[in-house]
Amino acid sequence: MSVFDKLSVAAAEATWHAAGPRAGLRAFRTIVDRVSASERARAILFGLDCATELGDRRGLDGMIARWRVQSGGDHFAAVSRRCLALRAVSMPHALKLAEVETARRPDDARAHYLLGRLRGDDGRSALQAALRLAERAPRQPGLASAARDRLTWLGDAPEGFDTGDRGASARLGKARADLRRGGRYARVAALDVLHELAAGPARSRALAIAAAHAERATPTEIELDRLRTIFGTHLAPPERGAVLGWLDARAALDAGEPPPIGAVASVDDGVRAARNALELGTVAEDGPRGAALAVIAAASEGLDALADAARTLASLSAEIPTAAEPYLAAAALAVRADPTAGQQIVERLFELPPRARRGWLRLGRALRDPELRTRALERARDIGEKGAEDALGQAARAAAWKAFAAGDERGASNALERARALLR
Description:
72% helix; 0% strand
């Protein structure tokens, strides 16, 4: 390392702090390939900071590519901080940087653990690598324990898990995995575990997992009974009544019926409180999520109230962040009350990546526009909703009759072929 290299990086850093991240990124790009290895590492990391601040994807690509071939040095703490900062800017770049660090230091358990955490539910292989490395000499018991707990959270419970004394985090992870992938008996047993853990220090996390299950799945009657027991026991008024009403409303919607009168009293003392309780202390919102829940609440108040709520949600449709199940349920109700407002909401949902595990089938059945109905039913089929293929076949058969009545024999023939393939 020469004095000149050190001064070059210091000058680029001064440019960044004086003139902003764009000028800083240019300065680091200018010097990064001309300085020694140790100073090059600092230049790349500072360049990543500038590109992250700017949200400059090309800048991030360039600096991450340079980091891939950066040799030597333990920079894990610095890389970890950059990965965590990148999550809010570009998750693909955060993952890419973590992947590069594991390739650069394949024997570093910390790098594999970081990658596994960033990958979320897809992080099993990286966490398994972290666990193997952490158990080698010199052992890293803290990291090994963290990797083991996270693997349990993802469903990799060791043999004999249910025997012996397990910590709350491990039991929560096993319950979460069983609720996601287990059979009906395993799901009921998992809800019993959550009921037990909600009575202790793990209350918030246990209730969060139970709420996620209620929101994502179509619970059986016995699961609904367990969920009512959990929330009825571990929530206090007014949240208790609001959440129980919310569960009743969900059960009614699943059966294709409007929520029962009184299941959710009003937006202020019902739906928002329920949602707030289910999210365990988050601040209730006045934005599109609150408007979507207001549509669901208004379904029990009559067509006029439902139409008003639908128009409110339509006015906020550009702010809907994701095609999640509450928005799909609200859209299915909205298209019946105010078709124009409903269509505006639906078109926004089609612009967004699908996140819901269900709800498209209900929406498809509510839609009258054949093209929109088909698109919704195709999404329902793609996520595996039961009955979606039959609904698509019936929609194709209806399209065939419509085409035949209009004199479009080719269109009728094509639609009938689709219907036969789906309804066989």
